[in-house]
Amino acid sequence: MGRILAIDFGTKRTGLAVTDEMQIIASGLTTVDTKELLQFLKHYVSTEKVERFVVGLPKQMDNTASESEVYIQKFLEKLSKSIPEIPVDRVDERFTSKMAFQTMIDSGLKKKQRQNKALIDEISATLILQSYLSSI
Fold first, then answer.
1. What is the total count of domains within the chain?
2. Domain containing 17 — which CATH number?
3. Do the beta carbons of residue 27 and residue 20 sit within 8 Å?
4. Per-block mean pLDDT, blocks of 10 residues, the chain (136 long)
5. Enclosing domain of residue 112
6. What count of other Cβ atoms lies within 10 Å of the Cβ of residue 105?
């Protein structure tokens, strides 16, 4: 089995999370400058066995696509050309940023630490991945 890598895509920063090789535990990996995301993913899959990508699917409350979906679609096209051998699944990511922030509060992080947007993105990716794992 290979790892599953989750992507919480953002126009500036992108949060990443991965499973263990047995695909049981979702853990935050890092946050990457979105401009460097494809390069980071190419390097990561060359050193780790990745079975699947899971990318957040941002939706509005009325179930329509969020405005950021346009940027995600462009990224997905580049991803499928760069790393065509790894399939991509999508997961509804509504409320993940709010849940990530609440997780930070619940874990006792100080206000200064909770303002770290990169950490919020990484936790959001972990929540997306955990949601995916719960659905399979």
1. 1
2. 3.30.420.140
3. yes
4. 95 96 94 97 97 89 76 96 97 68 64 68 89 88
5. 3-135
6. 10
